[in-house]
Design brief:
two-stranded parallel ribbon; 8% strand; 657 residues; alpha/beta
Length: 657
């Protein structure tokens, strides 16, 4: 590993150490200089002290390092002020869009062609039970009226929207069956499910009895989707870390084999969490956007706002606020006109774009697979990735601990949320990944010709998928006539969009550096003002720290405003989802968290505690650990699920409180 690669993987930790060193040096030097001035003044009370040009380092304080410290503190405080302001605007803009949609004709009644052709479903996973293609066994399939799966068949619909296929991947490991069943129930309630949903349960081979678990779910939902299948990510692939990213990557390799070259342009891969509830509107909007913006259909990544409206009332206020602020951070890039919009948890990518970037990565750096995939797509297109926001919020559940009453329950829930925060901050490795991808882009900025093959071809036959420049120069007619490389897609990239690249690194700094840098500099600037109180100001810097104090106070006020704006957004999303689930006959026993300012006033008081506890501390924890290891043990967070039969009455009030 080169020194450059090593440093980029520890960029956050190195920045932390440099900021600490700068702060310590400046504060200690200024404190020493202030003490020196005090003693000098006591010796001569008849005249003002003067400083000679040959003064010692103690008299000079930190010198130019003090100037750097002051201006960097100002920059960080400006970002602290700007970030919640942008989040407030994004929440306001998204709320306005959802309100407008609710008043107009809802897309939840969107219908594709209703000339239903039946549902063909694979009952067992095809070529997924072993870690290599050569060792795989032929799959046995059980299908409904149509017969075996033929990708070309599904592109013959009379309505144009019928040809769009949604390959929905649900990564899961040791998830409760009820949680998966509930997610599948919600998807199956969509009117377009049997026409266009191909469901893939992306599971782990190392989970006990996982095949039986998958088979039972497939048997239960075999008639409700266009197809349903499962994949098993092998546990013995070198260099692959267990987690959502590796499960998604393996499933993508397998599903890629099922779609022909002719149909791939209208296949959209959507990755969702095992507990995510998506409205039918999500896929209706997605289909509409894909068909409307044909020029950018293959270079667009789709994201959606997330909302914690399932069990927010059942977790401590500090956990609830941590999730609200996390959701708000994701929302901050989804406002109208935003060109940098990394997704959070749930997102959709055209299969052609998945082919172009080589699918999902599986190493330890890809633990935050949503942002990591966004970065792969962004740099693969020289920063010209199109992002579109689907105005259909995704319902999520708050993390719960292992239960308990009183302080024990509070401790368990807070501990579970801290582990999740650590996983989030472990994703700071993506900043280093972005730096390396930028260097690759810079080196290749003049070479804009690109070619790629279907994901399964490129991964299974890496030698055959290599293309020489002579082969790339062949005309399409020559390619088809010769019969070789007929599965190659080639095009020319646009010039790098440097402005977007700058904006991207700004957002990465906000996500991975700002929480800890802010905490360090707030403490350091406070100490600086304290130790220099009454001393001289040779560099005229005192005004900077006055402005920093104002910006810091305004930033806290903006967070309160953000929570206030979130109230309206949460109400719209929770009410809409409850109505949809009631109409689908799924609301009985399902939890719906409705916010009430009078009941949740304590949330506003928790905001100052959330920033260090679930922001700065896990960031520091992750950045320190990165000096020793890049691997994080993969754990599953406990999810809330719909209550079954005998417990429905007992929990009705609890879930609708």
């Amino acid at each position: 590993m080169s020194l450059f690669n090593w440093c980029t993987r520890r960029a956050g930790g190195l920045a932390m150490l440099m900021t600490l060193a700068l702060s310590y040096y400046v504060v200690s030097k200024e404190a020493a200089a202030t003490r020196y001035d005090y003693k000098f003044t006591q010796q001569d009370t008849l005249s003002r002290p003067t400083h000679s040009t040959s003064s010692t380092s103690e008299e000079e304080g930190g010198g130019l390092w003090t100037v750097l410290f002051a201006w960097y503190s100002l920059l960080i405080h400006i970002l602290v002020f700007a970030f919640p302001m942008r989040s407030c605007y994004a929440i306001f803009d998204i709320t306005r869009s959802l309100t407008k949609a609710a008043r107009g004709r809802s897309l939840r009644d969107f219908k594709l062609s209703h000339r239903r052709r039946g549902s063909s479903t694979s009952l067992s996973s095809s070529e997924t039970l072993t870690s290599s293609k050569e060792d795989s066994l032929p799959s046995s399939t059980t299908s409904s009226e149509i017969g075996d799966i033929e990708p070309e068949f599904y592109t013959d619909g009379d309505a144009e929207s019928d040809r769009v296929v949604h390959a929905i991947v649900i990564p899961n490991y040791k998830e409760e069956v009820d949680s998966l069943r509930e997610t599948l129930d919600v998807l199956a309630s969509h009117p377009q499910a049997r026409d266009s949903y191909d469901i893939y349960l992306a599971m782990e081979q190392r989970e006990h009895n996982v095949e039986l678990k998958a088979m039972n779910l497939i048997q239960e939902f075999v008639k409700k989707f266009r197809s349903i299948d499962f994949t098993l990510h092998p546990s013995d692939i070198p260099g692959e870390s267990p987690g959502k990213g590796s499960n998604l990557a393996w499933a993508a390799r397998k599903l890629s084999e099922r779609y022909s070259m002719g149909s791939r342009k209208d296949v959209i891969v959507t990755g969702i969490d095992a507990d995510s509830h998506l409205s039918a509107n999500y896929f209706a909007h997605l289909t509409s956007m894909h068909l409307t913006y044909k020029e950018t259909a293959s270079t667009t990544l789709y994201g959606a706002p997330i909302i914690f409206d399932r069990n927010a009332h059942a977790v401590p206020a500090i956990v609830r606020v941590a999730d609200i602020l996390w959701a708000a951070a994701g929302l901050s890039g989804l406002y109208s006109g935003s060109t940098i919009a990394p997704p959070t948890s749930v997102y959709s990518v055209p299969l052609e774009l998945v082919d172009r970037v080589g699918g999902w990565d599986c190493d330890s750096e890809a633990i935050g697979e949503d942002l990591h995939m966004y970065l792969k797509c962004f740099f693969a297109l020289n920063g010209n990735l199109t992002v579109r926001t689907i105005m259909s919020p995704v319902s999520q559940s708050n993390v719960k601990g292992d239960g308990g009453e009183g302080m024990k329950g509070l401790y368990n829930d807070m501990g579970a949320r801290y582990k999740q925060a650590l996983r989030h901050m472990w994703g700071g490795l993506d900043s280093g990944f972005a730096i390396r991808k930028f260097m690759e882009l810079w080196q290749e900025r003049k070479h804009t010709a690109r070619a790629f093959r279907p994901l399964h071809v490129a991964l299974n036959n890496p030698t055959d998928s290599y293309l020489t420049q002579t082969q790339l120069d062949m005309s399409p007619e020559q390619t088809l006539e010769s019969g070789i490389f007929s599965d190659v897609t080639s095009d020319t990239l646009k010039e790098p969009d440097w402005q977007r690249i700058i904006f991207l690194f700004h957002r990465l700094f906000e996500a991975h550096f700002l929480p800890l840098q802010t905490t360090i500099l707030i403490i350091a600037s406070t100490l600086y003002v304290w130790v220099t109180d009454g001393g001289s100001d040779p560099h005229n810097l005192n005004w900077i720290f006055i402005v920093c104090n104002i910006l810091r106070t305004a930033g806290f006020m903006e967070v309160a405003l953000m929570l206030f704006l979130y109230e309206r957004l949460h109400k719209i999303c929770a009410t809409t989802r409850e109505r949809e689930m009631t109409e689908a006959g799924l609301s009985k026993g399902m939890c719906f968290s409705h916010r009430n300012i009078r009941k949740n006033y304590i949330d506003y008081a928790m905001a100052p505690l959330v920033a260090p506890l679930y922001g700065a501390i896990p960031t520091a924890h992750a950045q320190i650990m990165h000096f020793f290891t890049l691997d994080l043990v993969y754990t599953v967070s406990k999810k809330v699920t719909r209550q079954r039969a005998k417990s429905i009455i007992a929990t009705a009030d609890y879930c609708n409180g």
